[in-house]
Amino acid sequence: MTTDRNDLNMGMRCVKYMIFVINFMFLLTAILIVTVGTAIGTIFGDFEYFIDSHFFSPAHLLVAIGIIMMFVSIFGCVGAVKESTAMINIYGVLLAIVFILELAAAISAFALQGQVKEMVRRTLNESMANYNGNPSVEQSVDFMQQVLECCGVDSHKDWSFFLQPVANATESDVVVPESCCPPSTLKESCIPFEYGCLDRLQWVVAQSAALIATGAMTVAFVQILGSICAFMLARTIRRTKSLRAARRWQLQQSLGIMTKPHNPSYTQMEKSEKNPDSEMYLPNSPKC
User: Membrane-spanning residues where (predicted)?
Assistant: First the structure.
């Protein structure tokens, strides 16, 4: 009996340790997801004038998923400590919900990748058209061209449609902002960057969306495996607790039988109480 009880306790400890390890992995994954979502949100924020607002949704959803995963991991650890089958089952359901959210984030990020080029071309043209009339747009365009080392949409010649040429300028001369020139050439003649901003900004946005999609899909499959493991662990806990209860009942029954007072139902008759049956034949009985 003692060996069985030790085996049950050892099995329950193994279940607890397994849940702790799974939740620790999920906690690290949640921190990574929040970091990636925050970083991509910051990148999109730097180029917010060139990115539509709905492109921010997958990054924000990724951060929300990471925060939810942190609380779910803590909930699973508490359920393991209390050996609560209900809490472990709820933990598995929460993991399944997180899986659905991650799948939604991945699908939306994949869907947005096809809209990147058209969106970037449109927003670049709109920003360049408002370059002189809006200081915030001017600052954003200058920041983008300096960081990405690009000029215009397809090339620096695109600025000829938005900036007026200086007096006595030839047809080949194109007026460009100072942000189109490398810092080393500002004091001399401006040599604009060779590449346009369309391809480079498109690459940044597309790669960020792809990172969100692939990261969410990878973590989503890990989450669904974690959910399945949670339900299996809940069943193991239920079975272990049932075996504990059965062993305890058997022990109580055995102890109850051993300590029960002896109360025989048969009591031997005294000699004075023995009355021979009148119809029974005895050797000394008178003959008929």
Answer: 20-44, 59-81, 88-112, 209-234
